[in-house]
Amino acid sequence: MYAIIENGGKQYKAVEGAYIEIDLLPEEVGKKKTFDKVLLLSTDDKVEVGTPYVKGVSVDTTIISHFKAPKVTVFKYRPKQRYRVKTGHRQRYSRVMVDSIAFPGKSEAAVKVKEENLPAEKAAPKKAAPKKPAAKNTTTKKSASTKATASKSSTAKKSSSSAKKSSADKKK
Questions:
Q1: Do the domain assignments include residue 64?
Q2: Is residue 148 part of a domain?
Q3: For the whole model, what pTM was predicted?
Q4: What would the 3-class secondary structure string for the chain be?
Q5: Of 23, 51, 64, 132, which is most buried with the most CB atoms under 10 A?
Q6: Looking at the domain assignment, is residue 155 inside a domain?
């Protein structure tokens, strides 16, 4: 059983227990979202096509995560004109899990049996614990102090070399 839904001018195939990646939704992660614009409903025995939407059918979903697509490089070029523009774009998406497809005539007993038989791997993934920041590097303080001593010794060498030069000038 599946349904074809419309969101943001695009069509998506919604199958119970599967994920859909749609354009970014303004809702937070973990919130429920219901899509009422169902264009087609296919059950085991029949197919209903809406004009434009199928009445009484909705798709209940849960927002799992928000993410960005890989970067797309846009390069504009006009030959012999010294015109070159390079930009990039990353589209933002929401990953949504289809919980159920509700329509008139769907028995509640079948829904309960399906939920009990879902494997554990299709459950919503847990968020990873935030990473702890790395320990501060203390070598920068040491290098700063070694730089200071190095600069002192270099000034001492310069002054001693200038003293040698002045004594050499006196001998002449």
A1: yes
A2: no
A3: 0.58
A4: CEEEEEECCEEEEEECCCEEEEECCCCCCCCEEEECCEEEEECCCCEEECCCCCCCCEEEEEEEEEEECCCEEEEEEECCCCEEEEEEECCEEEEEEEEEEECCCCCHHHHHHHHHCCCHHHCCCCCCCCCCCCCCCCHHHHHHHHHHHHHHHHHHHHHHHHHHHHHHHHHC
A5: 64
A6: no
